[in-house]
Give the backbone structure.
Amino acid sequence: MKNIAVAAVLFASMGAAFAADADFTLVNKTGYAIEEVYISPSQKDAWGKDRLGEYQFANGEARKFKFGDTNNCQQDIKVVFSDDESEVQWDDINLCELNKITLRYNRSTNEVSADLE
């Protein structure tokens, strides 16, 4: 009986680990270097902390981001560009269902798009 209880605890903790693991790769195809990246639940008005820290995210680069807020899968992503500090955001992206997001931006039309995989 003890082995069954231990096995149940192990499976439960493994399930929790898999459920919380919604990490994703972000690809910068905006045409510009990015200075800051923010990720926030779509229903919130606050962005929280910059996810890049002191690093710059060059055009063409890909970076892995940790995401474990599976209670709030719908997230908005905001970036701040290095060259002019302008901000752009992508809304309502389900991070729980994606492995890779390629951000695209046309500055002349101010149009944002994303390839979601």
User: Anything to note?
Assistant: DSSP finds one helix and seven strands in the chain. The CA atoms of residues 33 and 42 lie 24 Å apart. Confidence is low (pLDDT under 50) at residues 2-20.
